[in-house]
Structures are given as C-alpha cells and as structure tokens.
Amino acid sequence: LRHFLTIEGLQRQTLIDILDLAESFANIKAQAVKKVPLLRGKTVVNLFFENSTRTRTTFELAAKRLSADVLNINITTSAASKGESLLDMLHNLEAMHCDMFVVRHADSGAAHFIAQNVAPHISVINAGDGQHAHPTQAMLDTFTIRRHKGDFGDLRVAIVGDILHSRVARSQIHALTTLGVGEVRVIGPKTLLPMDHRSLGVHVFHDMESGLAGVDVVIMLRLQRERMEGGLLPSEHEFFQRYGLTEEKLSLAKPDAIVMHPGPINRGVEISSEVADGPRSVILEQVSNGIAIRMAVMAMALGRQPGAETGGETS
Ligand code: CP
C-alpha cells in the first residue's frame, strides 16, 4: 500500500487491515497514550488545493500522533502564485526529503497524476479529488458503521442526496460493497444520480419513503453546488421537502438506525438540526474516527505493518 488513491480495486482484506489497525490506534488513545513513534523521522506534507476543515486537520493530528513532522503548505501564499508548476513545487518538496504528500484537489485524477510523477520513496494519499474519490472518508465511515453495527453482511445502508457530484458517495459505495454490506441503496432525484449507478452494485430509489424503509444506516450528503452546472441547481426548499432528513422520515428506518454525514452539513437543506444533533446522529464520532483511520492509512503506506504499532509514549 505505497499510495492510497482510491478504494476501487482494493481487496476486502486490505480494507479489513486498515479498519483493524485503526481500531488499535483508537484503543491506544482510549488508554491515554497520545503518541506512538511509528513515523518518527518521517515528514508528511499536507497539500490542500481545495478548502477543508475536517480532512486537513485530522490528517495533521494523525501524523503528529504517529510522531511524524508535518508541513501544511498554504497554496495561496506559495510560489504557485508566481507561476511555479505543480510538478516543480512537488520536486522542490522532494528535495527537502519529504516522505508523504496528502493531496486534495478540485480536479478528478489529480492525486493519481501526482503519484505517477513523484520520486519512488514518496507516498501519496488522496484527500479528495474532484468528483472522483475520497477514500479515507469512506474508510472512516465504514469504521464508524462497524463500531456501531458489527458485521457488515446483514446491514442495509442508504446514501441519500447528491450522489452525482459526490466523491464521498463513490468511495463509500466501493468500500461498502467490497466489505460485503448486505444491501447498499442510493436515494435521490434522477438528476443527482450518476449514469453508471447500476454498474456500482447499488439499489436505486427516488423517494425517501421506500428508500429508507428498514435501513440500519442513513448517510446524508450535501448538495455540492460548487460542482453543479446552473441548470441542475435544485431549490433548497424543494430539496428539503423531498429528501431532507427529518425525524418523521427517519422513523421509516430501523428504530436503532444511525445517521451519518461526512460534513460540512447544511442544516435545513439535507438534514434538520433535530436529526443532526439528535441521539441517533454519529456525525461528530465520524470526525473523531477520522484520526485513527488516517493514522492507519499513513502507517501502512509508509511500510509499518499491522502489529508494529505497539510501544506508545504518554504525553
Ligand atoms: N468530509 C470532508 O471531506 O470535510 P472537509 O471538506 O472539511 O475536509
């Protein structure tokens, strides 16, 4: 696992290894051990060409908890504004003996392009590329589901909203189907579903009433307006009426169903505050779990095998 660019094509066992290693990191933290020395002497560079709150900060925290040095490159104040190309920037960072680039970019395929062009000792982690993939988000989501629900095989999981523009949904679908989830549903209007949804191995619903019936997990997505063309823009009011998750619609799911959202949430558009802040919401748990998952992915990409994580330092 030198690079971590997409879930698509990964073996089930690889995903299980990531989940299990993340579990051990989450347990270490529960024992008040804040840092492990796994990546001591390694340098991780956060390269975020697109805005982020959760992903960038949890990658930074995860790297620090592994004892790595972390550089956060501010793209807007970097020499990119003086015309330096992306590859020249990367080669200069390589010359500073960096070991890992964590990349978010608005263009689909950007992380793959970077992975193809970096020195052989560098690992690249995709922190979200355009509409394509957000693999660590999918892993932290499946980690959260496993912690609440155990076995994947008996579960029904519904992903609701703007599937078409969502790199999160695409990665979640690959992760959930690879892990053997019983049934993966997508719910949304025809205009917000991808053309290839049938080949993704999901069941498609256009209304919440039938789509949410009997599900164990409800994953809400925001309308990704920054990736929409003008003609596709639905009215927020109309969208909330049809697809916004309220207590009433949530009552169609199983009584112990959990509610998830990758964030940022838009209250009153895809989810009501009552549900987002309610007892079945695990939205903030997802954020916390992102640290353990990103620790696991970074450790594995830099050649630290599962089981090598023992030996923490309290701090
Ligand atoms: N879920 C997610 O990717 O959030 P950020 O955009 O804040 O990183």
UniProtKB/TrEMBL annotation:
Gene: pyrB
Species in which this protein is naturally found: Thiohalomonas denitrificans
Catalytic activity: carbamoyl phosphate + L-aspartate = N-carbamoyl-L-aspartate + phosphate + H(+)
List of residues binding carbamoyl phosphate: R54, T55, R104, H134, Q137, G263, P264
An annotated Gene Ontology molecular function: amino acid binding
EC number: 2.1.3.2
GO biological process: 'de novo' pyrimidine nucleobase biosynthetic process; 'de novo' UMP biosynthetic process; amino acid metabolic process
Enzyme class: transferase
Stated name of the protein: Aspartate carbamoyltransferase
Family stated for the protein in its record: Belongs to the aspartate/ornithine carbamoyltransferase superfamily. ATCase family.
NCBIfam families registered for this protein in UniProt: asp_carb_tr, PRK00856.1
The organism's taxonomic lineage, starting at the top: Bacteria, Pseudomonadati, Pseudomonadota, Gammaproteobacteria, Thiohalomonadales
Domain Aspartate/ornithine carbamoyltransferase carbamoyl-P binding: residue ranges: 2-146
GO cellular component: cytosol
Entry superkingdom: Bacteria
